[in-house]
Amino acid sequence: MKEKPSESVLGTNLLHAKSHNRRAILDAVRRSAGLSRADITRITHLSAQAVSNLVAELEEAGLLLAGEPVRQKRGQPARPYRLNPEGGFAIGFQLSGTQMDAVLVDLLGEERARSSLQINHPDPEKTVDLLVAASRDIIIKSGLDPDRNIGIGIAMPGPVGIAGPTGIAPGWENFDLASAMTAKAGCPVFVENDADAAAISEKLYGTARELDNFVYIFIGHGLGAGLFLDGRIVRGAQGAAGEIGHIPIMVNGRKCGCGRQGCLERYVSLLALYDEFDAAHRDDLVLDHNLTRLSALSPDDAPVRHWIDQAALHLTTTFQIISSMLNPQAIILGGLLPEPILTALWQKVTKLQDVDGPTPTGAHLPVHIGDASTYSAARGAAALPIYQEMIPDFQNMLKVRD
């Protein structure tokens, strides 16, 4: 079944909606590089004068580039516009209790610099200082104009803002990292859990570019899901939507850090994969914060193969539940697994789906491979400021073409 394409976001001709209209134009150009002003007018339903004024402003601001005029069948030649990759950049951090990975990406999502720093469960204030210093260092490393910094994104494991981010260190409860960072970094700062950040990255640059309803499965040391429904991330009443890692799937199963037994992430996560090895090898994998030992594993290794078989079985059941409840266009698998292992897991899942037959909503739910990289959450975090800059305000001003 052909996937439903992402719907175009319309502008509004209300005078107070200039910010929304700028985003609508940037979003239109992002989706289809090489749009003329007439094309933008047609897509956004803004007036020709509004488009002319805003495009001129965006070009002057360095966010849009005008190409050479293209001769039309009728009328004057038209200049195609595209995003200027040099028009801005964002920094993304992937933060855990032991590792701080950073990437700097341009407006097109191309990585321009990266860095990594081992940390030891630091307190929040010290972490802010480390993040600010790392931001300055990576900008210098990239050689880009510091004034073009759109903002900083930070991805962290677990729900953010409920009882403090999980997996960092004691003392993080109720700490407002975004406000503390903004005060010291002097730019907008966004904090998100790793699964939601990665889902936004896939929407902007990846497999989900043309999807408005998908679920991103982030396989890290735990397991989470980013729910992108009706064109926006769904966070839930307390920001914990997508915490599928703690769905109970086995009666009297393995003990989980949440205090219960048989949770999904005890079978589908990096730590669950490590449990397939003997004690010495497991400790080596757990203590390797750079994930180099994980990257050296092969899908053909017996412990890895056994984990893939079990994880795929549990994921297939989970996907059937997701399909029935949320009716997404697709599932995207990603996270910290090395690409060969992620691909093998995807192959096993699709094979099991063929055996199980169609879902309650009809045809098979498509499952795609997303970003498989130890920096996937950092890239997702870098997408947060760009997403805020380029995607219209869906909650307040969205008008969608039928």
Strand content: 15-25%
CATH topology-level fold name of the largest domain: Nucleotidyltransferase, domain 5
| Largest sheet report | 5 strands, mixed
Helix-strand category: alpha/beta
Q: How many structural units, i.e. domains?
A: 3
> Low-confidence stretches at least 5 residues in length (pLDDT < 50)?
394-402
CATH superfamily of the largest domain: ATPase, nucleotide binding domain
Q: What is the chain-wise order of helices and strands?
A: HHHEEEEEHEHEHEEEHHHHEHEHH
Number of strands: 12
Q: What would CATH call the class of the largest domain?
A: Alpha Beta
Describe the structure.
With 402 residues, this protein is α/β, with parallel strands linked by helices. The protein folds into three domains: 15-83, Arc Repressor Mutant, subunit A (Orthogonal Bundle); 89-199 and 380-389, 2-Layer Sandwich (Nucleotidyltransferase, domain 5), CATH 3.30.420; 208-373, Nucleotidyltransferase, domain 5, CATH 3.30.420.40. It is 39% helix and 17% strand. The chain has 13 helices and twelve strands. The chain has a five-stranded mixed beta sheet. A five-stranded mixed beta sheet has the order 10-9-8-11-12, with helices on both faces. Strand 11, helix 11 (339-356) and strand 12 (367-372) form a beta-alpha-beta unit. Helix 6 (194-205) crosses helix 12 (376-390) and helix 10 (302-326) crosses helix 11 (339-356). The two termini are 20 Å apart. The model is unreliable at 394-402 (pLDDT under 50). Belongs to the ROK (NagC/XylR) family. Residues 25-64 form the HTH marR-type domain. This is HTH marR-type domain-containing protein.
